[in-house]
Amino acid sequence: MSSLPAAPPEPSQRGHASVTGALGRIDAVMHLGFAVLMTASAVRYVMRHSPADNLGVLALAAAVCALYALIAVLSQQRRPWAVWMFVLVVLWAVLVIAAPSFAWCSFALFFLCRTAFTGPVAYLAAGATAAATAAGLFRLSGGTDVAMLLGPLAVGLMLTLIHDRIEHDAAEQRRLHTAVSLAQDQLAATERRAGSIEERARVSREIHDTVTQGLASSLLLLEAAYRSWPNPDARGDVRSASGMLRQNLAETRSLVHDLASPGLDTAPLPEAVFKAAAQYLPGVHLLVTGEPRPVPADTRHALLRVVQSAAANTALHASAANATVTLGFLPGAVTLDVYDDGAGFDPLSLAPPSDAGGYGLRAMRQRVEQLGGVFSVESRPGDGTVVAAELPTREKQ
């Protein structure tokens, strides 16, 4: 018989536990119904028969009740009870044929048979219960009422079909719940993998826009100082490289802790943008259009990283005489343009990212587009370059 499990169910078994709990309540109702019907049937039999007839039938009824109670207890304790069920069916068949007054109790016994057994045995036990009831009622009618014979058999057939349908629906519900739980587990695993991949890509962009660009620019300055040493200009290049390395070290430490740039995040956005660009382009010009205002932290961070990466690319590759950064504040958006009059390039002929580099433009585009912005690069060989980004600011209304 069904009963509630002793231990709390796992999350993936909650649907099954709810079904089991409902069946446990049905079992309790069936047990109570059997007790009431047996009592009423015994009273009815005693009132209609002489004491000499009562003794044997009541003793048999008492044995049936005792067996039923034993089976109920054993089922709750999850101990073997199928053998006792066979004995109960046999005693019940004898009782209901000898005393048809107890036929009403067949309903509880029918469901008990379907719970105790599975497969063909369950159908045989339930069929035997229905057949014994039919025989008892047909005997009660003196063998003249065919409805008494066919009625219990038809009711048993209908109850069998209904019970099979209920069991099928319950099994389907458990199957669907298992499938949903499996799908949820697979989705969670996929989300964890996607989160891990995104985190790796984010760290890759941060390292490229801070550590890699800073080291490349410092290396460029040191190589220039080496070529001009001991010219006095070499000392300036060394000092610039030293300052850039110190800044790069600070950003690396910040990256280890929280992947942010405290030196840039505390200042107003125009000042922070200018400072980020001036690390690589000392002569850069800043233009601000619109009314400056605070922007969301993720938008601010993306703008600073884009201007850092674009300025570093200009310093490394463009050989530009002039560079200008334009920061524009629009209703609901902020724009950033980094222009240089350097060598330019063909954006369509760029080599794919490799160990030698090529991550800068891709990282800038990913930063901007992940925040719902628009990123573009306009350049031609010998005609300078413009790196442009527009990001929504999502101000609260």
* Series of H and E elements: HHHHHHHHHEHEEHEE
Q: What is the number of helices?
A: 11
| Main sheet overview | 5 strands, mixed
Envelope shape: rod-shaped
The largest beta-sheet arranges its strands as 1-2-3-5-4
Helix share, percent: 55-70%
Mean pLDDT: 76
Give the number of DSSP strands: 5
Query: What is the gyration radius calculated from CA atoms?
Result: 43 Å
Classification by helices and strands: alpha+beta
Portion in beta strands? 5-15%
- Pick out the low-confidence regions: 1-20
Rounded to the nearest angstrom, the distance between the terminal CA atoms is: 61 Å
What does this structure look like?
- The chain has helices at residues 14-48, 51-76, 82-98, 106-116, 120-140, 146-228, 232-258, 262-265, 269-278, 297-318, 360-370; strands spanning 285-289, 323-330, 333-340, 374-379, 385-392.
- It has 397 residues and is of the alpha+beta class.
- Among the domains are: 11-144, no CATH class; 266-397, Histidine kinase-like ATPase, C-terminal domain (Heat Shock Protein 90).
- A five-stranded mixed beta sheet has the order 1-2-3-5-4, covered by helices on one side.
- Helix 1 (14-48) packs antiparallel against helix 2 (51-76), helix 6 packs across helix 11 and helix 9 packs parallel to helix 10 (297-318).
- The longest helix has 83 residues, at 146-228.
